[in-house]
Every structure is written in C-alpha cells, then in structure tokens.
Recover the amino acids of this structure.
C-alpha cells in the first residue's frame, strides 16, 4: 500500500500549478538535490490561503508575477510525495496563465522543463503530475 492509498500516512499540504504552453506541454520543475520533476508550487506559510501560497511560490521559484485573478481552481488532489518517502501530498491545484511571461529557474529550482504526455515516460516525474496531469 502506498502513502497515497493509506489515509493514515503522514501528509504534506501544498499548492501546485498547472501551467501549459501553446503546445499543451506542462511546465515542471526539479528542485536542487532531487531527481523528480514536479509542478511548481510549495508549502503554505502561516496564514496563507492556498491561492496566496501559489502566487508567492510562483514569484519565488519562477520569477513570474501572477495575481489571485490569474488562478483557476482545479480541486484538491492526493498522491504519493515525490521527495518525502512514506508521505502523501495533498495539493490544492490551480490552472495558471503566465500571460506571456517567461519562467526562469530561481530559488531552490535547479531546472525547469516543458513536458508533453509523450515525453513523460522518459524522465522521473512526481506522482501528482504523472497521475493527474500527464496521464492520457
């Protein structure tokens, strides 16, 4: 049984972005010291809503400026955590338009990559992105 399937497993709450380009590729990032690519986003700071968390994280991680009105809620998703073995991740996921802004790897992000469904099998991808946003 994976942490995703085990409701008693410790969980990590995050906000995550679904950002697609004109070719419908999904933007994924890889944090320093890790191997799995995942959606941009992160953990909330005290008092932040999930949307506020994502706005802050996108600025820190990708150097882009988005507002709360640029987010469209897609729901709450649960998957195995990519970088914390034995944990599940519970993600508030938002579709985000960058409105012509070009993301760059910043803060703890080592690399970013635009990934199509067809390319997804060739690189290590976090379960949240693989199961929900690149499956097909």
């Amino acid at each position: 049984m994976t942490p995703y399937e085990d409701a008693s497993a410790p969980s990590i709450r995050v906000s995550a972005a679904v950002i697609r380009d004109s070719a419908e590729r999904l933007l994924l990032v890889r944090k320093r010291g890790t191997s799995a690519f995942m959606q941009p986003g992160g953990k909330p700071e005290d008092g932040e809503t999930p949307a506020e968390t994502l706005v802050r994280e996108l600025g820190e991680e990708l150097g882009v400026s988005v507002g709360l009105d640029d987010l469209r809620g897609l729901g709450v998703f649960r998957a195995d955590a990519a970088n914390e073995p034995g944990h599940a991740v519970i993600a508030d996921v938002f579709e985000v338009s960058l409105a012509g802004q070009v993301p760059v790897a910043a803060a703890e992000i080592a690399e970013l990559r635009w990934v199509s469904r067809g390319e997804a099998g060739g690189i290590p991808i976090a379960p949240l992105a693989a199961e929900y946003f690149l499956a097909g």
